[in-house]
Amino acid sequence: MIHLAKRVILQTLNDKRSVMMIFIAPLFALTLIYFLLGDSDYTATVGINKNAMPAPLVTELKAQDLKVIYVSNDDFQHPKQYLKDHLDVDAIFTISENASVNIIMYEPSKKSAKALSEIQKALSSLNPSAKINMSYVYGAQDNSTFESLGYVFLGLFAFLLVFIISGMALVRERSGGTLERLMMTPIKRGEVILGYTLGYGVFAIIQAILIVFYSFYVLNLHSIGNIGWIVVAMVLLAITAVSFGAMISVFSTSELQVVQLIPFTIIPQVFFSGLIPLDLIPYHLGNLCYLMPVFYGVEAIKRVMVYGGGFLQIWGYLFGLIGYTFILYILNTLALKKFRKL
Amino acid sequence: MDIKISNVSKSFEKKEVIKDITFTIPSGEICCLLGPSGSGKTTLIRLMIGAIAADTGHIQLANIKMPNLKMLKKIGYMPQNDALYDDLSAESNLRFFGGLYQLSKSKLEQRVKEVLELVDLTEHRKKLIRNFSGGMKKRLSLAASILHQPDVLFLDEPTVGIDPVLRRTIWDQFQEIKKSGTTIIVSTHVMDEVTECDKAALIYNGSLIEYDSVEKLLKKTNTGRVEELFLMASSRGGVVK
């Protein structure tokens, strides 16, 4: 078993692509996501009709983080056409005679949302009684998407990369005949799976520490809880990923087939990882999340990072992962019977 | 270690691949399993090493019924494909397989050195397998299968795709291994190789059509070529008993 683990480590280290994939790829992807979902500093552009708008409101609008432009009367008759022709304008804002507010926007997007929230600020500062004060139990209003969803990506990367690498390596072992040769030595079937898990487990630990340090110290993610528990959850998730990869390799005879199975293996995991709020999924389909190992890991990470939980708040999820790994371990050991009866 | 095969049959998905085969391979000889591809040679080897169990009949290695986990220590097996780790060096490959046989550290180092010398790869021991030529891989694969000094060695088509010079070298190595008392079972579809062996089992469509010492088998033919025996079997459309 130790020999197998040592071999897995040596083999992975000798393959530069695998090393890159485990250590560099998650940092690269996180950096990309940091820029894509981080603070955009976008200033929305709003078109108004100066003549039909009360002067104090115009002043207030200008005081906000908005670019205000004046639109002619003619264009105001056809605001939708105007927005189509002027893509740099995010919203047209009008107030009719009876003081009802009309805001026309190009499409539902973050840009429109930004314009909308700035217009609301302007309106509420004119009318203090309509001012809304918002606050949250966890998190803050000005959190960027990266800050509020960061925990999902920590879990996803911990799972995906180890899954792909271990799954591929096991398929190669099956198709290359080394597994057959391995099974003709006195090694026990259970030891084969354990050895693999142990070997990749070492990479999982290093990877989890690397990802956590990078996201918290370089990308400035914040955790209320102890980041040690985040590392624990990520390592357990990655170990489940090794078993999961081993399971998938049973159903594939080549690396290409592992890729072909991605729609059944990885994509549901991404959907149920917490990227989409599970409570909102109809027909109770959200409960399918209990079948997805990524869900357990991400939920544990979330409880530590966002809710400030410790072991008592996440033990259920951690044991969920351990249970998942155990069941897969039994199945994988049985699947090796194909190569050796005993 | 002698091998007794008694009335062994094996089917895969209702197709009978091995049909009621009985023969005994005496200890310390080279026995070749000869037959066209698809005749069931590999299945027979897998049955003998205990990777799969027979449907009917039984196989004994030194009077121990197979499959048996303990016997795996005494068995060496060289699969048809090279079955080596591309991302490891020759040495690391051997150390890994040797480690699985629970050889002690010093014993392992000594054996790695010995087998590398035997297959003449000592100077390439630090090279990764992905940079090996086909012939070098074959030789290293052989080295990996004899690391633990098995009593019986199974070689599945060891000389496929190998040039005549290297084939000669490899057969010399087999003879060398035989001298140490190892029983060798080698499958091949190259009829010429039969002369290298002591005994030959001719397998055709999953049945054993002939089993005898090579000398006697060759006497049965008019031309002194083994092909003839297969041609005779196929013209009779079945089994000679």
TrEMBL record, chain A:
Main location, first listed in the record: membrane
Q: Which GO terms describe its cellular component?
A: plasma membrane
Gene Ontology molecular functions? ABC-type transporter activity
Q: Which residues form the ABC transmembrane type-2 domain?
A: 113-339
Q: How does it sit in the membrane?
A: Multi-pass membrane protein
> Pfam families this protein is in?
ABC2_membrane_3
Cellular compartment(s):
Cell membrane
Its domain of life reads Bacteria
**What residues form the membrane-spanning segments?**
20-37, 149-171, 192-217, 229-251, 258-278, 314-336
Arranged from A to Z, the UniProt key words for this protein are: Cell membrane, Membrane, Transmembrane, Transmembrane helix, Transport
The family database entries (PANTHER family) matched by this protein are listed as: MEMBRANE COMPONENT OF ABC TRANSPORTER YHHJ-RELATED, TRANSPORT PERMEASE PROTEIN
Task: Write out the similarity annotation.
Answer: Belongs to the ABC-2 integral membrane protein family.
Q: What is this protein called?
A: ABC transporter permease
Automatic annotation (TrEMBL), chain B:
Keyword flag Nucleotide-binding: yes
Please list the residue ranges annotated as the ABC transporter domain: 3-230
Keyword Nucleotide-binding on entry: yes
Q: Output the Gene Ontology terms for molecular function.
A: ATP binding; ATP hydrolysis activity
Source organism, top-level taxon = Bacteria
Q: Which UniProt keywords apply?
A: ATP-binding, Nucleotide-binding
Quote the protein name from its UniProt record: ABC transporter ATP-binding protein
